[in-house]
Write a structure and sequence with these properties.
Blueprint lengths: L6 E3 L5 E3 H7 L21 H4 L6 H6 L1 E5 L13 H4 L6 H9 L8 H4 L10 H10 L4 E7 L26 H12 L2 E6 L4 H4 L25 H4 L17 H18 L3 E4 L6 H18 L7 E4 L2 H4 L5 E5 L1 E3 L7 E6 L14 H13 L2 E6 L10 H17 L13 E2 L31 E3 L11 E6 L2 E6 L6 E4 L13 E6 L8 E4 L2 E5 L10 E7 L1
Parallel strand pairs: 3-4, 3-11, 4-5, 5-6, 6-7, 7-8, 8-10, 10-11
Antiparallel strand pairs: 1-2, 9-13, 12-14, 14-15, 15-20, 16-19, 17-20, 18-19
Helix pairs in contact: 7-8, 11-12
Length: 537
């Protein structure tokens, strides 16, 4: 028997490699390298992460602003450009062919260098956001397009320092946030990239270029487009993602954490790739404790109710809202228009944005509002108007938002129950079980804001003995706050005083069985929610 290849004789007379026999009889296999995380109190298990507690700064913040910005903003054609430019007949495909050429010749790799960020001024932007009442700012870290906005150790060719603007965009945002005294966050959408980008492996089905492969088929660009593979049926299906890529996913985001030291990491989905995803969360928390003298000041967002029921992370509703007062602080992330800049989009009105903020905060939530930047790194005039209106409103009413807590109920009026306005595209999340006395918590619901709130709608926040009642439209003569009456299950107790924020005079009021009745000034103060500051005994 050869000494260079160890074999055994099988029952049918064939030679069986010794290594095969070892596997067949359960011999130990080579161990995967350990997943390296920072030392600390958290380990990469769900039981360990249940000990996490949401930091006070986040509970108090209530409002953050996000810049959903990257190479996909270069065409200024809206969301998912890197995927949909490879779908023949799609609006973005048609625009791409007309503007740049066919994706077999001019692909996403060629779009990236056109993103120059020539007028990017993060100090100016963060100054505006601070004045608007934002207490934290979130930069894009990496979107589904597999392009990193920091000086990425594990994506050296396709990051914002190496190509495109050739600037460390995320680091510049962080430096500006620190200068303004804002907490800093990053968003990561990387888990879906392996399948989301797979349209680049296709080709046209019809026309002059039928059958000619798109540029994603070129192995020279596999570090951007991923190695060619048979795409999953859905872009969010991660069941076929190879183990090697999952590990690289972790190392890449670990590098993001270590370099940028974020106070918040937004994850566009549930915690993925179990041991790798849990390792990332544990690493973030352990590093945060190291940076903050033993206190874990970091927040990790997940969209999975099952992830966030006990400790672990902060639940995020994308373009949605909790139904009723949520047991733990949650986050609503939404956008004034499309996520990535779209020159043809219709924006939300300032009232819709402010209504959403008040509605979210009343339910124990925080609003993360995206203002998409143009390709050059600036806000357009309509965005500036929306931001200016929010700024003016927060200057008057911010005391009822920042540092507040939910009251006994989130609100009253025709819109308070569920606020489901778009059930055709959104199914409510399953309920969080709650056995506490008087619990009425159910599930999450989509709130498109398509119907503006009116003076019949009221939302509540509180600070100790002070109750803030936000009347969501201007009442004709008087506001009636039924939950602050002298009778009923929600009787608030005796009212000591009532102020109307933004009004220099005294208001006439009376607390009756039917509710607190407040006479409005003759002159209308605002087109947006008004806040009654109510001192309770």
């Amino acid at each position: 028997m050869s000494t260079t290849r160890r074999t055994a004789v099988g029952l049918l007379g064939g030679a069986i490699p010794f290594a095969t026999l070892k596997r067949a009889f359960g011999a130990p296999q080579p161990q995967q390298p350990a997943i390296p995380i920072a030392p600390g109190r958290f380990s990469a298990t769900r039981q360990s992460l249940m000990e996490y507690q949401i930091p006070d700064w986040y509970r108090d913040a209530k409002f953050g602003i996000w810049a959903h910005w990257g190479p996909q903003s270069a065409p200024e054609m809206g969301d998912w450009y890197a995927r949909q430019m490879y779908i023949q007949g799609h609006r973005q495909y048609n625009y791409h062919v007309k503007t740049y050429g066919h994706p077999s010749k001019f692909g996403y790799k060629d779009v990236i260098p056109t993103w120059k960020a020539g007028n990017f001024d993060p100090d100016y932007l963060l100054g505006l956001y601070k004045k608007a009442g934002a207490k934290f700012f979130v930069s894009m870290g990496v979107h589904h397009d597999n392009f990193d906005l920091w000086n990425s150790k594990y994506q050296p060719r396709w990051n914002a320092v190496a190509t495109g603007p050739k600037k460390n965009i995320a680091q510049m945002f962080r430096d500006a946030a620190v200068k303004q005294g804002l907490r800093f966050g990053v968003s990561q959408h990387l888990h879906a990239s392996y399948e989301w980008m797979a349209t680049c492996f296709g080709s046209d089905k019809t026309g002059a270029y039928a059958g000619i492969p798109y540029d994603g088929n070129d192995p020279r660009y596999a570090d951007l487009y991923h190695e060619k593979h048979e795409p999953a049926a859905q872009p969010g299906d991660v069941s076929q993602v190879p183990e090697s890529w999952k590990r690289r996913y972790f190392l890449r985001l670990q590098d993001l954490v270590d370099q940028l030291q974020p106070d918040l990491m937004y994850h566009d989905g549930v915690i993925r790739f179990e041991k790798y995803g849990l390792s990332l969360v544990a690493h973030l928390y352990n590093q945060s404790a190291k940076w903050h003298g033993g206190r874990v000041e970091a927040v990790y967002n997940s969209k999975g109710v099952e992830d966030c029921q006990v400790g672990t992370c902060v639940l995020d509703f994308e373009r949605g809202i909790a139904e009723g007062i949520w047991p733990n602080p949650f986050q609503t992330d939404t956008c004034i228009g499309d996520w990535h800049y779209n020159r043809d989009v219709t924006y939300k009105t300032p009232k819709q944005c402010i209504d959403m903020l008040v509605n979210v905060v009343s339910r124990n939530g925080t609003l993360l509002l995206n203002f998409p930047l143009k390709s050059d790194g600036t806000l357009d005039p309509k965005e500036m108007t929306i931001l200016s209106e929010i700024t003016a409103w927060m200057a008057v009413n911010g005391e009822g938002i920042h540092g507040s807590r939910p009251w006994r109920v989130c609100g009253e009026g025709p819109s308070v129950e569920g606020t489901v306005r778009d059930t055709s595209v959104y199914k409510p999340l399953p309920p969080i079980p709650d056995t506490s006395p008087g619990a009425t918590r159910t599930s999450g619901a989509r709130d498109s804001g398509s119907k503006p709130f009116t003076a019949r709608d009221v939302r509540f926040t509180s600070k100790g003995k002070t109750l803030y009642a936000f009347v969501m439209g201007w009442p004709e003569k008087e506001a009636v706050i039924g939950s602050v009456g002298t009778t009923g299950n929600l009787a608030a107790g005796k009212v000591q005083n009532v102020e109307l924020l933004g009004f220099k005079g005294n208001v006439q009021w009376a607390q009756e069985a039917a509710g607190l009745i407040v006479r409005m000034p003759a002159e209308k103060l605002s087109d947006y929610p008004i806040a009654l500051k109510i001192a309770l005994a």
